[in-house]
Amino acid sequence: MSRVTLSLSGTHVQCRDEHPSLLVALESHQVEVEYQCREGYCGSCRCRLVAGQVDWIAEPLAFINEGEILPCCCRAKGDIEIEM
């Protein structure tokens, strides 16, 4: 289990082993995330990783800049902070 901090609101949510992705973990806590494909193709869920690391479930196909992640295709690797 990892703790995810949303830097814009200071909210903390838990990312549990049963959550297949960071996106699902955020949704389970009623955090609204823009998304379209859930597969890393569109990049709609792109956000900045402020602190910590993620494990990629699948390599994203959408373009992401250094320091950005796609919550639909990664999981928190320990506690993280994202700009959201």
User: Class by helix and strand content?
Assistant: mainly beta
**Helical element count?**
1
Residue share in helix: under 10%
Radius of gyration: 11 Å
List the helices and strands and how they pair.
Blueprint: E1 2-6, E2 11-15, H1 22-28, E3 47-56, E4 68-69, E5 74-83
Domain 2Fe-2S ferredoxin-type: 2-84
InterPro entries: 2Fe-2S_ferredoxin-like_sf, 2Fe-2S_ferredoxin-type, 2Fe2S_fd_BS, Beta-grasp_dom_sf
Protein name: 2Fe-2S ferredoxin
Summary of the model, kept short:
The protein has 84 residues and is mainly beta.
Structure explained in plain terms:
This protein has 84 residues and is mainly beta. It contains one helix and five strands. The chain has one helix spanning 22-28; strands spanning 2-6, 11-15, 47-56, 68-69, 74-83. It is globular and about 30 Å long. Residues 2-84 form the 2Fe-2S ferredoxin-type domain. Pfam families: Fer2 (PF00111).
Task: Name its key features.
84 residues, mainly beta, 5-stranded mixed beta sheet, 8% helix, 2Fe-2S_ferredoxin-type, 2Fe2S_fd_BS
